[in-house]
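anyone seen this seq b4? input:
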Amino acid sequence: MPFTIALSGLNAASADLGVAANNIANVNTNGFKLSRAQFAEVFAVGTQSVSSSATGSGVRLSSIAQQFTQGNIDFTDNALDLAIGGEGFFVLNDNGARSYSRAGAFGVDNQGFVVNAQGARLQAYPFAGAGLFNTGTPVDLQLTTGANPPAATTEAAFGINLPANAAVPTNPVFDPTDPSSFNHTTSVTVYDTLGAAHTATVYFIKDAVANTWNTQVEIAGNPVAGAAQITFANDGSLLAPIGGLMPLAPYNPGTGAADIAMSLNFATATQFGSNFGVNSLSQDGFTTGRLTGVSVDAEGIVFARFTNGQSTSLGKLSLANFVNPQGLQQIGDTTWGESFQSGDALLGEAGTASFGNIQSGALEASNVDLTAQLVQMITAQRNFQANAQMISTADTVTQTVINIR
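predicted toks r here
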């Protein structure tokens, strides 16, 4: 009997060493979760009476439990390096089979899909427009490779201050080449439907009527109809145009694009003091843009950034969680598959319910405490030596009994 009991101890200590060795080997594996060997005694029920004491029959490995504690977050320079701060797993499409991982070292394949080193595609909810996402079924996240299309200008806003004490120009006939025919001018770049840039210039001319200004507008040096008067109250605030909007007549840019139909917005214009000032200029059009980079925010929304200053939502990362993560089946390459013990995957979005936030440009390190594992290795080694000594002792006792004469 001592031989069998000690042999079970040797097997248990060997299994404990194997688990510790695997943990130590993966101390630098991103997203790795350490395992812990759990043991149970072996007791032969029914071989002894209730009142008698019985010796156990040894030990057995009852389970190897995974420990899904948070690993340290290490920052990198790659926007597609992703870490989850909190609970949840990245959802991957591995050739049609769904798998889950905490390792967020992703890249892009030759088709623009975001993949891990094994080629499994990262899953995300598709963009549905107006800041919304279709959270029904996740799809493979694919980065756009084309140009960002242009948008024509529909409104240009002028945050200006016109001097309250300005005099009427000496030349009553407006001439853009004659500074004596207007008081002040400013310009803004606008865009047509093909993304071509044009300079829109606005001239401000003091009227003889108090608190009134006339305007003239040119695009690319060509006059545009629709310019109107701007009037202010006696406190310098805007009275007209109502709401600050001054619609202009459609302008043919001559590039083959559609007419530029835009309005000037003077809602923030004022008439104070004695100096002309331009506090802000903006317009809502933009030219064609080339992809410059990708970013991911804390909620898992993936943005493509372009040279025209625009950004486009490509999708929102899908995360998964489980009632019993320790029941997940390990399938290698720092990925897991759901099982009966883990329960069905609960899909959701970062920052909601029980899901953590996404950290872009970072990776979750292994949660292995190297010092603790080295201590565990020494403990398992001592256990192995003790059980081996027990076999040696039992052998000596047996040999003594055999040699009795």
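The first strand starts at residue 35 and ends at 42. The chain has a mean pLDDT of 91. kinda curious what u guys think
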